[in-house]
């Protein structure tokens, strides 16, 4: 399973604003999470109109902008300026849009180190919310890997530490908790990328306390809305969504297709925005982490964090129309 993901990632690498008030609330046993209405702070150049929409982390007062960024493949590059310059622009667009969340992993080749270099070069640490993962077997190996990740990223503290694909999660849990106790990690999480692992994620979340769970959810992979998303909503667990474009495959499907009329009603100007807004429209989603190697795509993705958020009826219309 792990090898599948790596192989998929390598194969791909080798072949390679309208701002309107929006408040979405849902009922649940905890506090209703809402999309905060944009306020005009003049800080966002991407939209030109106030900050990106945000959602609370669980039942805390801390909020995350709804569009972040993944780094699988895209940041696995060498030291040559020609390889790194486009990624500097990607990071600048993330920040310009008002985004802050970056997801990475020791599984992603050189990505942690590249991110660490660029974050230092651009002095971005205070503006970022950094999530990485532990992806190995055994407690000691996990401790060493986490220390190496923090070194590569150049951080003394992580915002989120996740167990990648649930790999040996029982072995890592005491380490994660100890790091949180020591103030080196703020939130703990688990991840997976396949629908056939959603039941396992739910089982683990039912038995142990994690703040975050990360999994696949998109118009092409809707399984999470059956059980996992409602479960997270009911238990105050924050959700990071990976594979929002099914690793880019969704763009192939719409290559020859114009945006449907509903896109205009929602202020959507591209298929990327269409796919992301549909995900953000699910009220249990905290943040989506699309990956890109291109600044123009980061700009596009960031725009999905502004303006109208589709409600349940509009989301179904979007699902029929793509
Ligand atoms: N098990 C796990 O924990 C797990 C598994 C999978 C993913 N993840 C995380 O989730 C992140 C996202 O998932 P993913 O990398 O699998 O794939 P994804 O975000 O679904 O798709 C990435 C692809 O979409 C393209 N793209 C991005 N924005 C675009 C836009 N606006 N217009 C057109 N094309 C666009 C990118 O190409 P360009 O470079 O040309 O823009 C890239 O080929 C990962 O990077 C990783 O951080 C975690």
Question: How does the SSE layout of this entry go?
Answer:
Blueprint: H1 2-14, E1 54-56, E2 63-65, H2 81-97, E3 101-103, H3 111-121, E4 129-134, H4 139-153, E5 158-163, H5 169-181, E6 185-191, H6 198-207, E7 212-216, H7 228-235, E8 238-242, H8 249-253, H9 261-265, H10 271-280, E9 287-288, H11 295-303, H12 312-321
Helix pairs in contact: 2-11, 3-4
Walk me through the structure.
- With 322 residues, this protein is α/β, with parallel strands linked by helices.
- The chain has one domain (40-321): TIM Barrel (Alpha-Beta Barrel), CATH 3.20.20.100.
- It is built from twelve helices and nine strands.
- A seven-stranded parallel sheet has the order 3-4-5-6-7-8-9.
- Strand 5, helix 5 and strand 6 form a beta-alpha-beta unit.
- Bound molecules: NADP nicotinamide-adenine-dinucleotide phosphate.
Shape, per Cα inertia axes: globular
Main structural class: alpha/beta
For the record, what CATH class applies? Alpha Beta
Q: What is the number of beta strands?
A: 9
Helix percent reads 25-40%
CATH superfamily caption: NADP-dependent oxidoreductase domain
Low-confidence stretches: 6-48
CATH topology: TIM Barrel
Mean pLDDT: 88
How are strands sequenced across the largest beta sheet?
3-4-5-6-7-8-9
Integer tally of domains: 1
SSE pattern: HEEHEHEHEHEHEHEHHHEHH
Terminal-residue CA separation: 29 Å
Name the quaternary structure: single chain
Ligands bound, unique? NADP nicotinamide-adenine-dinucleotide phosphate
Proportion of residues in extended strands: 5-15%
Number of helices: 12
Taking Cα atoms only, what radius of gyration do you get, to the nearest Å? 18 Å
Characterize the largest beta sheet: strand count, sense, and whether it forms a barrel.
Answer: 7 strands, parallel
Can you tell me the CATH architecture? Alpha-Beta Barrel
């Amino acid at each position: 399973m792990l090898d599948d993901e790596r192989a998929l990632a390598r194969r791909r690498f080798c072949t390679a604003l309208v701002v309107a008030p929006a408040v979405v609330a849902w009922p649940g046993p905890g506090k209703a999470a809402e999309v905060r209405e944009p306020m005009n702070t003049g800080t966002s150049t991407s939209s030109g109109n106030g900050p990106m929409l945000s959602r609370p982390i669980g039942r805390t007062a801390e909020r995350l902008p709804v569009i972040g960024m993944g780094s699988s493949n895209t940041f696995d590059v060498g030291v040559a300026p020609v390889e790194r310059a486009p990624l500097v622009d990607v990071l600048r667009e993330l920040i310009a849009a008002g985004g802050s969340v970056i997801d990475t992993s020791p599984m992603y080749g050189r990505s942690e180190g590249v991110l660490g270099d660029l974050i230092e070069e651009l002095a971005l640490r205070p503006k970022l919310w950094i999530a990485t993962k532990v992806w190995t077997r055994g407690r000691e190996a996990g401790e060493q890997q986490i220390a190496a990740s923090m070194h590569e990223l150049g951080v003394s503290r992580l915002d989120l530490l996740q167990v990648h694909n649930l790999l040996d999660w029982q072995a890592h849990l005491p380490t994660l908790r100890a790091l949180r106790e020591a103030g080196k990690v703020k939130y703990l999480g688990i991840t997976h990328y396949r629908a056939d692992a959603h039941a396992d994620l739910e089982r683990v979340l039912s038995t142990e306390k994690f703040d975050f769970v990360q999994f696949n959810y998109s118009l092409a992979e809707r399984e999470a809305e059956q059980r996992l998303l409602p479960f997270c909503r009911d238990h105050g667990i924050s959700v990071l969504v990976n594979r929002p474009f099914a690793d880019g495959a969704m763009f192939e499907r719409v290559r020859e297709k114009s945006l449907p009329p509903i896109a205009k009603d929602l202020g959507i100007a591209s298929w990327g925005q269409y796919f992301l807004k549909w995900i953000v429209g699910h009220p249990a989603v905290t943040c989506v982490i699309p990956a890109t190697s291109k600044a123009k795509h980061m700009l596009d993705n960031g725009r999905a964090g502004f303006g109208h958020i589709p409600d349940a009826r509009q989301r179904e219309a979007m699902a029929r129309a793509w």
